[in-house]
Amino acid sequence: MGCVVPAELSLDLRPTFVPKTIANFLFHLSTIQTTSDKLSKLHDFLSRLEDELNKIDAFKRELPLSMLLLNDAILVLKEELEKCTSKNSVPVLEEFIPLKKEIDQSEENKNNDRDKNNNNECSKDKKNWMSSVQLWNNNTTTSNNNVSDHHHHHKLNKLETTKKREEGQSVTVAEDLFQSCSSNRNGGSAFMPFSAYSSVPVTTVTLSAPKEEKEEPVRNRLSFLTPEVKSLREGFGSRGSRSSSNRAVSSSSPPTVQPSLRAAPLQPQQTSRKQRRCWSPELHRRFVNALQKLGGSQATPKQIRELMQVDGLTNDEVKSHLQKYRLHTRRVPAASGTDQSVVVLGGLWMPQEHYNDSSKGSSTASGSPQSPLHLATGSRGGTSPTEGDSMEDDDDEKSESYSWKSHIHRHGKVGV
DNA sequence: ACTTCAATAT
DNA sequence: CATATTGAAG
């Protein structure tokens, strides 16, 4: 109930004291003649900053930038402080600085204490800043890599395939419409657009490249098709002429891997399953289109596949997808009785990610940038930017939006 | 523990 | 080709 009174409140007495920026503060500081005043203000502000730092320390993961800024500010102020003290050689409030804590650790500071060079301040400052930045970047990049890490985590032996996957991610979109999706549906979705839309993965921010595995910057072509791993009896469906090229490329990727690693898992891998085909929206759209062309029900996997004109796609894959498709379309026929009104919303089948149960749903599709919900009325009137359907070759009328044409999809969750 | 999806088996 | 089962991933 009582209002909490932060330290700041008690501190900020003078109106001039609340700076808009650090620079502002410094300027203000410079106008002060009395050294002691200067120092006290500096300390004051510093302590507040450090206080703040402590507060957000708990959230440093969530607020890396805040930490960064704060640290930076603190460093700057500290340097200023030292400047003051050293200039005037006034020890004065020396003891008054119990506040040094985490920040103190930064090597730079120590150096400062010893070396003490005013001239270098700029560089020092920069250096500090840089170092922190680096830290941050490191984190980022690592997190980025984490994706792969994640994979590795699960299966070391599949390292090779994993690698391939990554590649697939990074390239995607531009070249071939589909495969855009990795294995991530929900959580990973964030990555998708990232890799998809930025031609250059951020990776190369490197201030100092960590020894982490460096990925090859450039891989132009890759196969999104089925991985070569297919082996097995997968021979059929190879009719695709262009598919051959992929393979060659794919083989090039492994060089980074240690022979032992790749050799070992390779053998036992024989039994492993084929890499999952990812049915990206585009791919699915094609699928639906083909299906429609074929008159829906009578469509056979083979026909569908041919119509889709996606090379590397196998009958099995189509078949499997068809199965799922049918399952979806059939769902809950009688459930709510004759209530067909329900409808459309449920009818659109987006790749699973959008299933969200959120009841809010309808209102603001805009909420999510990618809201795929455009009604099927007429041809895809929606032309949602995200979808942006690469018109590309979609020779046929893309006409209808893709959907599992079912009308009812239990709204909400199943009762369990 | 539960669901969904795609690969395989029948 | 249709359906059932399996295995993986979330």
UniProtKB/TrEMBL annotation:
<dbReference type="InterPro" id="IPR009057">
    <property type="entry name" value="Homeodomain-like_sf"/>
</dbReference>
<dbReference type="InterPro" id="IPR006447">
    <property type="entry name" value="Myb_dom_plants"/>
</dbReference>
<keyword id="KW-0804">Transcription</keyword>
<feature type="compositionally biased region" description="Low complexity">
    <location>
        <begin position="358"/>
        <end position="372"/>
    </location>
</feature>
<feature type="compositionally biased region" description="Basic residues">
    <location>
        <begin position="406"/>
        <end position="416"/>
    </location>
</feature>
<dbReference type="GO" id="GO:0003677">
    <property type="term" value="F:DNA binding"/>
</dbReference>
<dbReference type="GO" id="GO:0003700">
    <property type="term" value="F:DNA-binding transcription factor activity"/>
</dbReference>
<feature type="region of interest" description="Disordered">
    <location>
        <begin position="104"/>
        <end position="168"/>
    </location>
</feature>
<dbReference type="InterPro" id="IPR001005">
    <property type="entry name" value="SANT/Myb"/>
</dbReference>
<feature type="compositionally biased region" description="Basic and acidic residues">
    <location>
        <begin position="104"/>
        <end position="128"/>
    </location>
</feature>
<keyword id="KW-0805">Transcription regulation</keyword>
<dbReference type="Pfam" id="PF26575">
    <property type="entry name" value="HHO5_N"/>
</dbReference>
<feature type="domain" description="HTH myb-type">
    <location>
        <begin position="271"/>
        <end position="330"/>
    </location>
</feature>
<feature type="compositionally biased region" description="Low complexity">
    <location>
        <begin position="239"/>
        <end position="260"/>
    </location>
</feature>
<feature type="region of interest" description="Disordered">
    <location>
        <begin position="354"/>
        <end position="416"/>
    </location>
</feature>
<dbReference type="Pfam" id="PF00249">
    <property type="entry name" value="Myb_DNA-binding"/>
</dbReference>
<protein>
    <submittedName>
        <fullName>Myb-like transcription factor family protein</fullName>
    </submittedName>
</protein>
<keyword id="KW-0539">Nucleus</keyword>
<dbReference type="InterPro" id="IPR044787">
    <property type="entry name" value="HHO5-like"/>
</dbReference>
<dbReference type="InterPro" id="IPR058673">
    <property type="entry name" value="HHO5-like_N"/>
</dbReference>
<feature type="compositionally biased region" description="Basic and acidic residues">
    <location>
        <begin position="157"/>
        <end position="168"/>
    </location>
</feature>
<keyword id="KW-0238">DNA-binding</keyword>
<feature type="compositionally biased region" description="Acidic residues">
    <location>
        <begin position="389"/>
        <end position="398"/>
    </location>
</feature>
<dbReference type="GO" id="GO:0005634">
    <property type="term" value="C:nucleus"/>
</dbReference>
<feature type="compositionally biased region" description="Low complexity">
    <location>
        <begin position="137"/>
        <end position="147"/>
    </location>
</feature>
<dbReference type="InterPro" id="IPR017930">
    <property type="entry name" value="Myb_dom"/>
</dbReference>
<feature type="region of interest" description="Disordered">
    <location>
        <begin position="232"/>
        <end position="279"/>
    </location>
</feature>
